[in-house]
């Protein structure tokens, strides 16, 4: 067991905590750091997710179970509530027991990349606060999410860190260096867009930081149908009024914003995301599009999720249905 570890800060990625560990323990070679943390040399650092967590957890002591690390120090919870139950279990197992090589690929394949980020992102305002409070800056998981452009706390534009996988060793766990940060605060000029982007950031953060273990793709889909029903967007024979739904969503967001979110909708495409998200098919839709859909349906994600009683009813229905 390790006698020293850099305990992750709130919502810090495990990746970032390992970067700080490497720095404070004074290792020269990242291979040593990898061996010390993972008890295995075949680990390639992954920014948002993780691998061999079972080893990491045994190594760090009972405070850090692998489930705890996944929930609090990876971006997995952002994807999790929108995945089919079996896929969730498979990906969690992957992070616990394997090298995690295919995991981005797997999440990418099933969810598709929307507003892909290449590199590490930070918020200049949060960075300043971290320096004041902790004497160092750390990698916050909220800021790494695809489709999150502004900080949820203050609407400040997130910035890309100068060093990334392309200009450093692939074994490196990058640690943010205060001297390399651009702390100039910038805002989105278009107020309407800014407001919508902040709302997306808040929603993403809420999903990341709320225990949504009981949710999965099926349950979310059933909730959608219930809300569509109350909005009169289901026909008598329970079919979705796609035309009306499309028109309402477009007028709610506007083309410009949907384009920015890489989520424009081709009305004539049978598999456009709006049709796929409302159908109970095997296809998985990116979390950012679920957020767009949820924010359109109800005030915000909290309101959407608060209707727990509906979910319990659905659970019961399923149980009875499957009995
Ligand atoms: Zn911030």
Notes on the structure:
- The structure is a single chain.
- It is built from 16 helices and 2 strands.
- With 323 residues, it is mainly alpha-helical.
- The protein folds into 3 domains: 14-111, no CATH class; 121-190, no CATH class; 214-322, no CATH class.
- The chain has a two-stranded antiparallel sheet.
- Helix 9 crosses helix 14 (287-297).
- The mean pLDDT is 91.
- Bound molecules: zinc ion (ZN).
- Zinc ion binds at residues 123, 125-126, 151, 153-154, 156.
- This is TnsD family transposase.
Pick out its properties.
single chain, 323 residues, mainly alpha, 3 domains, two-stranded antiparallel sheet, binds zinc ion
Average pLDDT, to the nearest integer? Answer: 91
Going across the major beta sheet, what is the strand order? 1-2
**Fraction of residues in β-strands:** under 5%
Structural domain tally:
3
Poorly predicted tracts of residues = none
Radius of gyration: 21 Å
Strands, helices and their partners?
Layout: H1 14-25, H2 30-38, H3 53-60, H4 66-73, H5 76-79, H6 85-97, H7 103-111, E1 121-122, H8 124-134, E2 159-160, H9 191-209, H10 217-230, H11 242-253, H12 255-260, H13 273-278, H14 287-297, H15 301-306, H16 308-322
Antiparallel strand pairs: 1-2
Zinc ion (ZN) binds at residues 123, 125-126, 151, 153-154, 156.
